[in-house]
Design goal:
Elements (H helix, E strand, L loop, with lengths): L1 H4 L14 H10 L2 H4 L5 H9 L17 H20 L3 E5 L5 H10 L2 E6 L2 H38 L6 H15 L7 E3 H4 L8 E3 L6 H26 L20 H17 L7 E5 L8 H4 L6 E9 L1 H12 L3 E9 L25 H5 L6 H7 L3 H5 L6 H18 L18 H11 L9 H11 L3 H31 L4 E8 L10 E7 L5
Parallel strand pairs: 1-2, 1-6, 2-5, 6-7
Antiparallel strand pairs: 3-4, 7-9, 8-9
Helix pairs in contact: 2-20, 5-6, 7-10, 8-10, 15-20, 17-19, 17-20
Length: 528
């Protein structure tokens, strides 16, 4: 059995690591890629489209090198396909931040997007960024389309000239038949991808003909345009902020005055922008498992929830809201910051009334499962980046480890609510690092002379290689801990009676975006 195979990794009595190679093999065996529990992105897109037309012509290696652009490009295409499949036009972006994903979904895919973030400053920035983006959107599209048309003309000049009559006939045929592309026979998704449990219906395959080829070419041009449009998202300054008081909320509950203000603002926005099909509204609110979306979004309708790197408990709460609210027909959530998850069994306290970030599923709750902060911190590490040569910052980790010894020895402090943060990059030496860190922790640095600080450095510097090896073992183990957290969320969804399909899907290149796996689910009544 697997347990027998890996039984010699640790000493049974001392619990010490005995076989590093076997440890690495065991970690690989229990990683997401090896367990066979994830759904391929291509298969999911094919099932959602249902017309067997494949991808839209955009390949991963065609994306810009920018991390955020890569994430927005891939996730927005998937969200658009889910929205079309479920017949919905409203998207709620939880933890929307600066609005990269929200803006792109709104403008490129004509979806009505509400971006909700707990930071009012971030929401203001997203609103102003979106305003500037819209201002340049049509001009940019026209310019990009003109470039595409010029390229077509250049290619056409290299080919034999077709008769004017034939070209006119094809154009008229396209106009007459494009509308009929929407009137296809229906087949079940189960027939297309039977292994993923879909039972709803979708459009069938379109027959091969020149008209479809022309439509496909037009779509391909739009895809090229969408790639160019992503550049705009990075051109606009992220700190562009104007006063914008659509909504403010310091907590999870809204007062009646705030609700009325939201309602008026929503009505005014709808009246002033009723001619636009693509709308994006940045809102500020603190989202919890008990949040009533109808208090935040006054015109809430059938919609889907999305989250691109929702932090800590926010990812878990997104799934809970999805399961509880009938208006939410689908969810696509990519979590991050596992170290900030709250754990039910971490402090061994009986708080059954609390809502925790981990565990979510009843199976792990019954077992009283606990990861602990160190394991959750490890889950945030990026094995794929280390594998391609992006090594861990060993020196800064060494600085932090020795600082911990100094704090415990000299000040007797083992826990603190304060954080050292990114002090290493701002320090000229180890002594400088220690002094700046002590001030951040509000500890009296006059207690420690420079000579004492350097004595600690000299005492432990020969163990730097040891520290590096330890952290490499943590990196190897990281995917196992992450998959435990992801499977807990998937099992929670599997336990719900109102969900037709749920799965884990690897969306991003893990070197560009280490937190690359999405939890996706569709309600039973969502699609028909």
């Amino acid at each position: 059995t697997d347990n027998d195979t890996f039984s010699n990794v640790f000493c049974e009595k001392s619990k010490k690591l005995m076989d590093v190679h076997l440890f690495a093999l065991a970690a690989q065996y229990y990683s997401l890629s090896n367990l066979g529990v994830s759904t391929p992105l291509g298969a999911l897109l094919e099932a959602l489209r249902g017309d067997n037309q494949g991808t839209t012509g955009i390949k991963t290696d065609e994306f810009m090198n920018n991390k955020k652009s890569h994430e927005v490009q891939v996730m927005s295409e998937l969200v658009d396909n889910i929205a079309k499949y479920c017949g919905i036009k409203q998207v709620i972006d939880i933890g929307s931040g600066k609005g990269y994903l929200s803006s792109f979904l709104s403008m490129q895919y004509n979806l009505k997007v509400y971006g909700i973030d707990s930071s009012n400053t971030t929401t203001n920035g997203a609103h102003e960024r979106n305003r500037k983006l819209k201002k340049h959107w049509r001009a940019y599209q026209s310019r990009a389309r003109a470039n595409i048309e010029n390229q077509k003309l250049e290619k056409a000049n290299d080919r034999p000239v077709q008769s004017e009559t034939h070209c006119k006939a094809v154009s008229e045929d396209l106009l007459n038949k494009t509308g009929s592309l929407q009137e296809q026979d229906q087949v079940t998704i189960q027939d297309l991808v039977p292994s993923y449990g879909f039972t709803e219906v979708a459009t069938s395959e379109t027959g091969k003909n020149p008209v479809v080829d022309l439509v496909a070419q037009t779509q391909s041009d739009e895809d090229k345009l969408s790639e160019e449009v992503l550049a705009i998202l990075n051109v606009l300054p992220p700190d562009a902020v104007e006063v914008f008081a659509l909504s403010q909320c310091d907590g999870g509950e809204l007062c009646e005055e705030e609700k009325e203000q939201r309602k008026i603002a929503s009505l005014q926005a709808k009246a002033s922008k009723s001619s636009e099909s693509n709308l994006y509204f940045p809102l500020t609110s603190c989202i919890t498992a008990e949040t009533e979306l109808s208090d935040i979004i006054t015109d809430l309708e059938d919609s889907m929830m999305v989250g691109l790197h929702t932090c800590g408990d926010l990812a878990a709460n997104t799934l809970r809201i999805f399961a509880a609210k009938p208006e939410i027909k689908a969810v696509c959530s990519v979590g991050c910051c596992y170290h900030l998850l709250s754990e039910q069994f971490e402090n061994q306290e009986d708080c059954s009334e609390e809502v925790w970030g981990f565990p979510m599923c009843q199976y792990l709750k019954d077992k009283g499962w606990c990861c602990g902060r160190n394991a959750r911190m490890s889950a945030c590490l990026a094995l794929e980046r280390v594998a391609v040569g992006q090594m861990l910052p060993t020196e800064s980790l060494f600085y932090r480890a020795v600082l911990q010894v100094i704090i415990e020895d000299i000040y007797g402090v083992t826990k603190s609510d304060r954080h050292v943060g990114k002090t290493f990059s701002k320090s000229s030496s180890f002594t400088d690092y220690v002094r700046k860190s002590l001030k951040k922790l509000e500890l009296d640095d006059s207690k420690v002379p420079d000579s004492c600080i350097m004595d600690y450095y000299e005492k432990y510097k020969h163990r730097m290689n040891e520290l590096e090896a330890f952290n490499m073992l943590k990196v190897v183990l990281a995917p196992c801990i992450e998959v435990l957290i992801l499977l807990d969320r998937l099992c929670y969804l599997k336990e719900q009676d109102n969900i037709a399909w749920s799965g884990l899907v690897k969306l991003f290149d893990p070197v560009k975006s280490p937190r690359c796996c999405a939890v996706i689910a569709l309600k039973k009544q969502a699609c028909f």
